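re: ur msg from earlier - yeah i can do the pyridoxal-5'-phosphate complex, just paste it... oh wait u already did. ok heres what im feeding in:
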Amino acid sequence: MKEILKIENKKYAYQCLNQALNMGLNFKLEKNFKEKNFNVDNLNDLLDNPVEGIELKELLKYFEKEIIPYCSNFSNKNFMGFPDSGNSLAGLSGAILADFLQQNLINSSFCAPIATYIEIAVIKWFRELLGYKIIPINSIWDVGGIITYGGTGSNATAMLLARENFRKNTMINGVNNASDYKIIVPKGINHYSIKSSSMWIGCGNNVIEVETDNYRYNIQELKKVLLANKGKIMSVVSYVGDSRTMTIENLKEVYQTVKEIDKNIWLHVDACHGFSLSFSDKLKNKIVGIELFDSIATDPHKVLNIPYCISALLIKDPHKFKLITSTSDLIMQEDFAWGQVTPFIGSKCWISLKIWFMMKNIGIKKIGKIIEQRCEIANILAHKINNSKHFILINEVNINAVVFMYVKDKNNLKKDIKKINLLNQRIYSKMLEEGIYYLHSFSLPDDRGIMEKGAILTPLRFMSGNPNIKEEDLNNILNYIIKLVKELEDNE
Ligand SMILES: Cc1ncc(COP(=O)(O)O)c(C=O)c1O
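and the outut:
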């Protein structure tokens, strides 16, 4: 049976895997971010049951021709909407090897005898970078972090910790009166995963959105809400790089405000994006105060050029993980069985190997330089936008996101927000259709009063984590937008 790996078909296996590897490399190095748009009317063609198998080399050929052209390529340097480029060679090597090695990080002794300790090393590195204390590690309970499948998983686990910290044994007794388990988030910029987490863990939709200024908490408003709901707030969530503008919260101010009013509130910081600044000696001062928070969510698959899916949740007091442990005789009751501290996860692939490879390969110092270069590219684009009459900058660039709008001529600007929004949406749709470049788009309150304070804008957003992007690519994308607008006007 040549479909299953064995000594006798090693050569065939090598050829197939080599073919797959080549396809992957070719895809990552493609010119455009997408070759073709898949038409959902053809969905039925994909749904036929695979009753008879196809020989693997043939199947790979079919996949390359019929499926890959429809994939979005986040590694392409024209893909400027998200930073998740996944193009670290060591990260890719770790991803491939993790699948080959098939270690299961639910248990240590027989499932993942060394992988367990490699995962501990990765978490320790992150804790140290972010300024959390390291204690001697004698068991899983001393590590102070877990690996999850994404920022959403880390945020959900943080909210579970907040809930148990707030009302001990809710795990056992269940939630009594969900509206007493409130979570505070900044209005307009929070990530949906917090509200979803609250609902997933039985606390209902009791998330309070607090007014913001320049995409950060308005501290007076935060105080008001804290006092009005005293005793009924389990967590306050802050962002070090919110999903839209990448603004960094005034961390120390939020910490002091919250802890002065109620010491028991769990302070969580979603640093899925901004934790990357901790690698740079030059930029880490921007996130000072992060180490005061009870938990930190990080998303290496977004910001460290690591392939999907991997996130790490870190907590200040490692022993607090005991609050959310659940054991079974199917999980080994051994000192280093990760399965005891990973809610929502059973068998777990050695995903942290991707980070281990990348960090060992590039090293903290050089990763810091990559992050600096990434931020610098965003600053250069912001500068170009400020100097162009066609574009208007919406956010203050804190990390690597540049939010902007095409406005034709900003020196003679009629602030017809409806019309400007519509034009930018049309630019976005055309860009998506053409598949040459990608910038992201979403709705965003105008929190800095660039057009009109509080108005809802639908801007374009540049954000990249791809070290291959150079200044000329920034000129190209701006010229491309100007060209698109001309084409749109010509077709009117
Ligand atoms: C700030 C922030 N937090 C959390 C998430 C969720 O992360 P993931 O997609 O890895 O679950 C995102 C995703 O974009 C994000 O931007």
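cool cool. The mean pLDDT is 96. ping me if u need the other ligands too
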